[in-house]
Write a structure and sequence with these properties.
Number of domains: 2
Shape: globular
Strand order of the largest sheet: 1-2-3
Strand content: under 5%
Distance between the termini: 59 Å
Radius of gyration: 22 Å
Number of strands: 3
CATH superfamily of the largest domain: Intergrase catalytic core
Number of helices: 13
Length: 327
């Protein structure tokens, strides 16, 4: 009987190089889950093609990178971007590797402009989430979703950080959440506003005594909610709140509540006359960024939104979040 490969094992002759590439990414702090998924697909394809030498031939790679039926431009671009990184890595090591060009017309990270919600839009969105009713399939959603949206907007969390919170990570006595193994594999302590602490105290009372490792915002199965479930409900709330959505990849996205938190925070500091040179490093730590450049991408305010402070932000930090452009 032939030996079967374990689920986590790569199949093609490129497997050890893929693993080395992924190890390098994670040593730099990237979780790279989606990248690994894409490269595992490529590994299976190369194995099926019977690739016998450690290289990425142009004909084979172009065949795998061709757009699939019903594949969105965003997903297609993501596949190409991931393989471009891997191919450049191979080239640096001296292997023969075709480096595909980026998808024409695709948005890079530096070109993406987040959708910043206004305070009035946030009020409407929170009003709608507060009207959620429990369902047989999701008996706790009316308790969980109002708190998740408020933490995203009021604390600038990444949604994945909130979904992974366990009871032991929520210290309501001190008013501090512990984010474990966030982006860049960093733990951080996040102090909360008293209003958020008060809401979480009321939320916690709806549950009986729970063990420390229990999920703080549990799905009906007791495990973490999936991102897709949160995003689907978020889209429905946007419609109910009368907030237009620009379509796939244009937002508002759930993650834009984090952008909105940062921009509204900087605007408030400006109105209070605070020194942004002093405040921005604090915001960088609070958001869990590796350096100030990550924070700058969140806090640049476009002239269309807040013309009174754009000049000051640009003078200090340059244009770090680009404006939307028309073709």
């Amino acid at each position: 009987m032939p030996n079967r490969k374990t689920p986590g094992q790569f199949q093609s002759i490129m497997g050890n190089l893929i693993k080395s590439f992924l190890d390098g990414k994670r040593s730099c702090g990237y979780q790279y889950h989606e990248g690994e998924r894409i490269l595992r697909q490529l590994d299976r394809f190369l194995h099926g093609k019977g690739l016998a030498t450690q290289e990425l031939p142009r004909p084979i790679l172009k065949q795998w990178l061709s757009k699939r039926m019903h594949e969105s431009a965003t997903t297609h671009s993501c596949r190409i971007s991931c393989v471009r990184q891997f191919a450049r890595y191979l080239s640096q090591l001296g292997y023969s590797a075709y480096v595909p060009p980026p998808l024409e017309g695709s948005l890079s990270r530096s070109q993406f402009a987040p959708r910043i919600l206004t305070r009035e839009e946030m009020c409407r969105l929170l009003a709608r989430v507060d009207q959620l009713a429990p369902t047989a399939r999701s008996p706790y959603r009316h308790l969980i979703m109002p708190e998740i949206l408020r933490l995203l907007y009021g604390g600038g969390f990444r949604v994945g950080e909130l979904l992974k919170l366990r009871v032991r990570d929520v210290d309501l006595t001190q008013g501090v959440l512990t984010v474990r193994q966030g982006k860049f594999r960093k733990d951080r302590l996040v102090p909360l506003a008293l209003s958020l602490v008060s809401r979480l105290e009321k939320y916690a009372k709806h549950f009986s005594e729970r063990p420390p490792d229990a999920i703080f915002f549990p799905s009906p199965s007791g495990q973490s909610y999936g991102l897709r479930s949160i995003y689907g409900l978020f889209r429905k709330l946007l419609i109910q709140a009368g907030i237009p959505h620009g379509g796939r990849g244009k937002g508002p996205r759930v993650h834009d509540l984090r952008h909105t938190f940062a921009v509204h925070t900087v605007k408030r500091w400006y109105q209070e006359g605070a020194d942004l040179d002093v405040k921005l490093p604090l915001l960088s730590i609070y958001l869990g960024h590796r350096d100030l450049s990550g924070t700058q991408k969140y806090v640049h305010v476009t002239a269309e939104l807040f013309p009174e402070i754009t000049t000051r932000v640009n003078l200090d930090f340059g244009q770090v979040i680009p404006r939307r452009t028309t073709p």
